[in-house]
Amino acid sequence: MKTYFNLxxxxxxxxxxxxxxxxxxxxxxxxxxxxxxxTETPPFVVKEGxxxxxxxxxxxxxxxxxxxELDYTFKTYPNLAALLKAVKDSEVDFSIxxxxxxxxxxxxxxxxxxxxxxxxxxxxxKESKTWSYIKKLWSWDFISAVxxxxxxxFIFGFLVWVFERKSNKEEFxxxxxxxxxxxxxxxxxxxxxxxxxxxxxxxxxxLVGLIWMFLAIIMxxxxxxxxxxxxxxxxxxDEINSVEDLGRFEVxxxxxxxxxxxxxxxxxxxxxxxxxxxxxxxxxxxxxSLFVYDEPILKYEIERRELEDEVEILQKSLKKDYYSYSFxxxxxxxxxxxxxLISTLKTLKWxxxxxxxx
Length: 358
Fold this sequence. Notes:
Blueprint: H1 2-26, E1 33-38, E2 46-47, E3 53-54, H2 56-68, E4 71-76, H3 80-88, E5 94-100, E6 109-111, E7 116-125, H4 129-137, H5 140-164, H6 169-172, H7 176-190, H8 203-231, H9 236-239, E8 251-254, H10 258-265, E9 271-273, H11 276-284, E10 290-294, H12 295-304, E11 311-313, E12 319-328, H13 332-344, H14 348-356
Parallel strand pairs: 1-4, 1-5, 8-9, 8-10
Antiparallel strand pairs: 2-3, 5-12, 6-12, 7-10, 7-11, 7-12
Helix pairs in contact: 2-13, 2-14, 5-7, 5-8
InterPro entries: Ionotropic_Glu_rcpt, Iontro_rcpt_C
Keywords: Glycoprotein, Ion channel, Ion transport, Membrane, Receptor, Signal, Transmembrane, Transmembrane helix, Transport
Subcellular location: Membrane
């Protein structure tokens, strides 16, 4: 009797499971045929020569679909803006592209559990230190520091000449050449070289000289520091400490990207390009100074085009990004895919997959 009862329970469980699976399939519009939106985004979505796709996002979907066993097809779009619009308007059932979750996007899209954590990075052209020093020599900071130094030397040289021009004609003279001699004395005194070829003899001249000696110690220190500072080649890593600092540069980013939303949030005007290739090219063509975009995508594009000697990514990132699958609002696929994605992220297969992309 007990055996029959156990068989009856097993029948109920199997029947119930099959019925539940059927209900899940019925909840998918059009059966289990799904359309997945894509736009090429190396290294996450890469279009191969045979027309097939590869990359981390594709591999993650393959792992998820091992459990779902959905029949799907890819529908490609030329850029990120077009893809986001397609998902929003339900032209596709969802997208597995690396879409960053943002407050603005959450107003018109739904997102899965994040499957990759990234950062928003900043790329710039590389410049040689020699060229940077040359540019600094022509900067207003350097020129103004030199002009101030020359002006102060001239003032004290002129004051000494005023007192010495009659009583010490042989060293300072009465004409314009005497003013130049005063300038020479002032420069020698300030630098503490002390040639001794010229020295004031009058009380007024020696008083000016005494004041200048002590004042020069202070001024030469501050002016030297100012000149050295103006010549110091600061890297942009030192100059960019926050998003607000980007406002001092010519910036570009990708249209409809999370980086574009970030710049808009901080009221930073930037040139818009359609993809990462256009952004890197804008740096190479010197149309912009900085290109702000997703760090792993930037790194891949720079390495793919072998531009390591021309373009670099700043060490400091602007914000953390969370890549997720994106769905239209109220999509039935969110509840179907998200639990499977979460369980997939805990598997050894996923850990091994991530090692290939790190």
